[in-house]
Automatic annotation (TrEMBL):
Residues 9-27 have a biased composition (Basic and acidic residues). Residues 1-27 are annotated as: Disordered. Belongs to the HMG-CoA reductase family. Gene3D superfamilies: 3-hydroxy-3-methylglutaryl-coenzyme A Reductase, Chain A, domain 2 (3.90.770.10), Hydroxymethylglutaryl-CoA reductase, class I/II, NAD/NADP-binding domain (3.30.70.420). This is hydroxymethylglutaryl-CoA reductase (NADPH). Its EC number is 1.1.1.34. It comes from the Bacteria. InterPro entries: HMG_CoA_Rdtase (IPR002202), HMG_CoA_Rdtase_cat_sf (IPR023074), HMG_CoA_Rdtase_eu_arc (IPR004554), HMG_CoA_Rdtase_NAD(P)-bd_sf (IPR009023), HMG_CoA_Rdtase_sub-bd_dom_sf (IPR009029). Keywords: NADP, Oxidoreductase.
Length: 393
């Protein structure tokens, strides 16, 4: 077997988060690859703020940020007009979301509702046979309050709300469901569940072993389980599109939009898609990048339902339900300088703001879906990309 002889990436054990260390790595990479990384090496932030966010830092990838809006939201947490930062390299995206926002504003804005919030870790416990696994499950239910006390001792924020259980062969899968305040909470619940699982192993009358994740938490993976049992926040954005506004601003009509929605629902069902609307991931990914969210959570967060109902007066009710929207306004990448600025644009940085951000994300998704759906119906989808986007010669 051939062993790699490539030189190791340079690191400074005393202070690896410095401009000098980053420059040393860029020079090393230039020697190895020939690329000088001149643009990547130009940045305004202090590398000293990066511990806990990245390793082997070399510089900054500059992502264009546009502003969409204003968007009027009638939420429980997001109330008023919001300018929404979207980080993207896709031409027409910001313009399309802004158009959807203008339409929603003309129709009275978006009503948003946060239904619930959970974050999971799902250990799998192993036994000699299925009966032991079944009986262990009953013991867990009987001792829930003790397990919760142990888990919550690791954090001032995490609260264990319930444990779902499934038996498979001679294993018992436990899905711990926590609330995690304004943090996304994956690391928080991992620590809490580890301590709880160790306590369970030591105190269970039935001998067992466990894996901290048996993969039923479906961390950073889409699953139907998360469509039913929320991971992150279940948030709903809804609005009634007035038929005259749709005709004047979107150059189509509500009846055609309703018919197209039925066809899209059928197509999405046949394809097995995680979302039946036009493009929830676009708005979510752009907002995530701008505001320092964990970008891998887009795969869970974009799944959901676009619902519609043609009303008796030919106005069109539309709503977006995102059952597993994972957002944070505290911790992780949210405190980095430019990400913090983007959160501050919406007054969404810090504790007590995560539900507000979730409502803004859902409302933004609804705006984007309305705009793109009507562009497809009216025949403007390709022409708008010709004028503003990637189809330019």
């Amino acid at each position: 077997m051939k062993v790699s002889r490539a030189p190791k990436i340079p690191r400074d054990r005393r202070n690896d988060y410095s401009s000098e260390s980053a420059q040393q790595r860029r020079e090393f990479l230039q020697q190895q690859t020939g690329e000088p990384l001149e643009q990547t090496g130009q940045f305004s932030i202090d590398p000293q703020v990066l511990p806990g966010n990245i390793e082997n830092f070399i510089g900054i990838v500059q992502m264009p940020v546009g502003i969409a809006g204003p968007l009027h939201i009638n939420g429980e947490y997001a109330q008023g007009d919001f300018y929404v930062p979207l980080a993207t390299t896709e031409g027409t995206l910001v313009a399309s979301y802004s158009r959807g926002m203008r339409v929603l504003n003309e129709c009275g804005g978006v009503t948003t509702t946060v239904v619930e919030q959970f974050m999971q870790r799902a250990p799998a416990f192993l036994f000699e046979n299925a009966r032991q696994a079944r009986d262990f499950g009953q013991w867990v239910s009987d001792n829930f309050s003790k397990i919760a006390a142990v888990a919550e001792s690791t954090s001032s924020i995490a609260r264990l709300m319930h444990i779902e259980q499934w038996s498979v062969a001679r294993s018992r899968y436990l899905r711990f469901n926590y609330t995690t305040g304004d943090a996304a909470g994956q690391n928080m619940v991992s620590k809490a569940t580890l301590i709880a699982s160790e306590w369970i192993k030591e105190n269970s009358p039935i001998p067992c072993d466990y894996l901290l994740s048996g993969n039923m938490d479906t961390d950073k993976k889409h699953s139907h389980l998360n469509m039913i049992h929320s991971r992150g926040r279940r948030v709903i954005a809804e609005a009634v599109l007035k038929k005259d506004v749709v005709k004047r601003m979107l150059h189509t009509d509500t009846r055609m939009m309703a018919r197209a929605a039925v066809m899209s629902n059928t197509g999405a069902r046949i394809a097995g898609a995680a979302y039946n609307g036009p493009h929830s991931a676009n708005g979510i990914a752009s907002l995530f990048i701008a505001t320092g969210q964990d970008e891998a959570n887009v795969v869970e967060s974009h799944a959901g339902h676009l619902s519609h109902e043609l009303l008796d007066n030919d106005d069109l009710y539309m709503s977006v339900t995102l059952p597993s929207l994972i957002v944070a306004t505290y911790g992780g990448g949210t405190g980095l300088p430019t990400q913090k600025e983007c959160l501050n644009l919406m007054d969404c940085y810090g504790k007590g703001k995560a539900n507000k951000l979730a409502e803004i994300v859902a409302a933004t998704v609804l705006a984007g879906d309305i705009s793109l759906a009507s562009a497809v119906i009216a025949g403007h989808w390709v022409s708008s990309h010709d004028r503003l986007g990637r189809n330019r010669p």
